[in-house]
Amino acid sequence: MYRMTLAWIGIRILEVMFFAGLAGSTIVVLISFVEDAKELFGEE
């Protein structure tokens, strides 16, 4: 029972970390896309 609770808590923590990393990566990709678009189309 005790080990199962620890495993469940660990899984939830890993899920939160995974989705936070996914969101961070998405933000970085979007920022890079905008910067590359500015450079390509000469809007600087």
Largest sheet features? none
Distance between the termini: 61 Å
The secondary-structure element order is: H
Give the strand content.
under 5%
Q: Which secondary-structure class do the elements indicate?
A: mainly alpha
The Cα radius of gyration reads: 19 Å
What best-fitting shape do the alpha-carbon axes yield?
A: rod-shaped
Give the integer mean of the pLDDT values.
93
Extended strand count: 0
Helical amount: over 70%
Stretches where pLDDT is under 50 for at least 5 consecutive residues are none
How would you describe this structure to a colleague?
The protein is 91% helix and 0% strand. The longest helix is centred in the middle third of the chain and has 40 residues, at 2-41. It has one helix at residues 2-41. The model has no long low-confidence stretch (mean pLDDT 93). With 44 residues, the protein is mostly helical.
Q: In summary, what is this structure?
A:
By secondary structure, the chain is mainly alpha-helical. The chain is 91% helix and 0% strand. It has one helix and no strands.
Secondary structure elements and their pairing?
Layout: H1 2-41
Quick tags:
44 residues, mainly alpha
